[in-house]
Every structure is written in structure tokens, then in C-alpha cells.
Amino acid sequence: MEPILNIENVSKTYGSVPNQTKALNGITFQVMPGEFLGIIGSSGSGKSTLLNCIAAVMQPTGGSIVIEGKKLQSLKGKALAAYRGQTVGYLFQNFELLDNLTGEENILLPAFLHSMIEKEGHRRLNQLAEYLEITDVLDKFPAQMSGGQRQRVAAARAMILHPKLLLADEPTGALDSKNAKNLMKKLSGLNQDEQATILMVTHDSNAASFCKRILFIQDGVIFHEIRRGDESRQDFYQRILKVMAQLGGGSCHVL
């Protein structure tokens, strides 16, 4: 099986000499189809910079990012727009919903922008809304929703076009523990039931415990990897905490 995403020796430097900051320092890894991969690290470790490079929000300084055999840095114009809109879906920490649109309108916006057949768009909307338990907020505006509802609406929007890869940037960062657990269960379910390929960056070991594989990042370098076997999520969480202790982080209670 070929990887859906291949990251090879990627680096990212901010600023100019002598005041340069190296956010990424030669990162290499692959993401396989249907994988739920977590990248965990403390604030400033480089994880969000990495995700932004994969999302084509910013260009890496060096190395290559290849998705489905195409080098990301070579995409221009319409091809780059299609990549950002259809190949990857992006789930933000702070939802990024449009306040003047209802939940349904927010979710369907990418379908409209990328000319998805209207019937298919509504079929997909109903499927995701039922699974994510947001059917009762489709006619509401973001200000009328709870944080958990807004993030699940955002997740539906990110998945509406069946992206090849879902990028999630600290998706539980603005949620309380109950809503965080609910969201992670839903993302895990999308991974299992739809074989959605998910790449999530987080500093939260609770959220990371829902992943199948975790890469630990510090100072722009991946220094350790663990995989979840047949163990319980609670046991996997304990293994995460042991590695997180090396980062000076972690948390006290599994959700």
C-alpha cells in the first residue's frame, strides 16, 4: 500500500540571519490511507507549522511534501485551490465558522464553492449531521450553538467533500472535557467507519489517546513514535504520558 502523504526532510525557518528561528528541522514521516495519526508536542514545538505546510497555508523552507504522488510545492493556481478545497479538509481549533450563516449553510459552503452536485451535497450533509449529532442545530447560527456543537459543525464542513486527508489542528483546544471526548469519539468513528485518513496535531494526551499512531515532536524534530496495539485506550494513554514526561507536559486524567 502506498502512503497518501509522504513528508521528506521538511524544514521551515522564520526570519533572516542573524535572527532566524528554525520551526521545523528535517522532519520525515508517512501517512497511510485510513490511518489516524497524532502529532503531539508542547506549544512552540513546530506541530502547527508542520500542519500549515501540509495544508499549503505556508511553504516549507526545504524538503518535500508529496500527497497521492504529487509534490505539493509544484501545485499552482487551480490545482492548488483544488488541493486546499478538496484533497484536504481542515478542522481548526477555534471552529472558524461564518457567523452570518446557519450550521447547514456553513457545512454546505465548500460543496457550493467546489460545484458539488446539490443532491449529493444534501445527502452527505444529512449523513454527517446524523452521525455527528448536529441535526438539531442545522438551522441555528454559530452564536446559538455550544462550543461542542460548533466544532462538530466544523467537522462536518471539513468532511463534506470526502477529503483524502483530514487535518485537525488542536481540535479539542477550545472545548471542555466532555465535549472534547465526544468530538474525539466522533473523529475516531469517522476513521473506523468511513476509513477517513486523519492527521491531528495536539498538545493534549487525552485527545491523542484516540489515535492509532503518535509521533512526538519537540524543537522541530520528531524524536519518538508509538503505536496502539490491542491495549485499551487507557493503557495507551499511560504510555503517552510516559513519553510526554520527557517533554515536560502531559495531563492528569484520562477522559
Mean pLDDT: 91
The major β-sheet equals: 6 strands, mixed
Overall spatial form: globular
Tally of helical runs: 8
CA-CA gap between termini: 34 Å
Helix amount, in percent?
25-40%
Strand arrangement, largest sheet?
A: 6-7-8-3-9-10
Runs in which pLDDT lies below 50 for 5 or more consecutive residues are 250-255
Instruction: Report the sheet-strand fraction.
Output: 15-25%
Protein structure class: alpha/beta
How many strands? Answer: 10
The SSE string, one letter per element, is EEEHEEHEHHHEHEHEEH
Radius of gyration: 18 Å
Any chance you could write out the topology, listing elements then pairs?
Blueprint: E1 5-14, E2 21-31, E3 36-40, H1 47-54, E4 62-67, E5 70-71, H2 77-87, E6 88-91, H3 103-113, H4 118-132, H5 147-159, E7 165-169, H6 177-193, E8 198-202, H7 205-208, E9 213-218, E10 221-227, H8 233-247
Parallel strand pairs: 3-8, 3-9, 6-7, 7-8
Antiparallel strand pairs: 1-2, 1-4, 4-5, 9-10
Helix pairs in contact: 3-4, 3-5, 4-5, 5-6
